[in-house]
Amino acid sequence: MAALETVINKNSDLVRKGLNGGVLLGRYPAASLLTTLHAVDGITVPSSYESVGWTGEDGVTFGIDDEVSEVRGWGGSTFIRRDTTSSDRTVAFYALETKRLTKELHTGLDLSAVAMSAQGEVVITHPDRPATKYWRTLVLGTDGDGDERYYFGKFYPRAAVTEREEETWADGDDPMSYAVTMSGMLDTNAGFALREFLFGPGALAAATAMGWTLGTLLAPTALASGAIAATTVALTWSAVANASGYQIQRSTDNGDTWSDVAGAAGGAPATNSTTVTGLTASTAYRFRVLATSAGGGNRGPASTSIGVTTTA
After folding, report:
1. Which residues, 6+ apart, have CB-to-CB distance to 131 below 8 Å?
2. Which structural domains are found in the chain, ordered by start?
3. N or C: lower Cβ tally within 10 Å for the chain?
4. Are residues 151 and 142 in contact, defined by beta-carbon separation less than 8 angstroms?
5. What is each CA distance from 201 to 63, 138, 148, 227, 296, in whole angstroms?
6. pTM score, two decimals?
7. Residue 66 host element (H or E)
8. What does DSSP assign to residue 55?
């Protein structure tokens, strides 16, 4: 019989906080749709997205407001059918920086063509009824550092500002701010209304504890040698999706046996290039590379090997 502690399986290492983060906006529909934020050495966001900068200390609040239709049967004490008729997903925050992007967000106007005069003046003219402006909206958060870092992301491919709070000018402790609530909606071309991301070395290391199954890593391709010297050789290859690093292997018997390459420059690089050191002059080697994840504990298949002979 299992103990209670085993059954309830509490894991404090999986309790996360959003220690830092921000909101980035892309113009709809021109900004790129996001399919991944993961990069081998961190995070990648297309240049078509711009950060709103500092937000209030309360961070970002995500809301879900579902409306349902319920059917109850004669003689039954609970409903026998329940259908979600609408689901409103919102993002609320207040931007602290006064700049073009935050003014666009709060006014609902497209100010991309508005310029500052040579005398340093910007003039914003408001229509009686501004048109609804849509954004591609990305909210990013992070927790932990180094090998324990987690990244979180929520991406709304089509969102609009649905609430604006009052703007206050005063000399107290609170700066001018632009508080908004944005509602995400279905982007019919993208085929979804919300996409979430969880990644980073901390997430990868905790994949099993969180209940995720690791995907299969592919073999790196296009392995090639660069500068070759008596004791070193430079190698490059094509990056592999979902890899957190790479392991170089070498052979001195034409590929019959392989060993991991150790050393600061030639062991398990985070990017898809490295320089292998500690080689012997005038010696024939074969090299291959494997993609890794989960701190190197998960390895994919090896690339096609290449032959290199060091110089004298």
Report:
1. 108
2. 11-210 (no CATH), 224-309 (2.60.40.10)
3. N
4. yes
5. 28, 21, 6, 31, 11
6. 0.75
7. strand 61-72
8. B
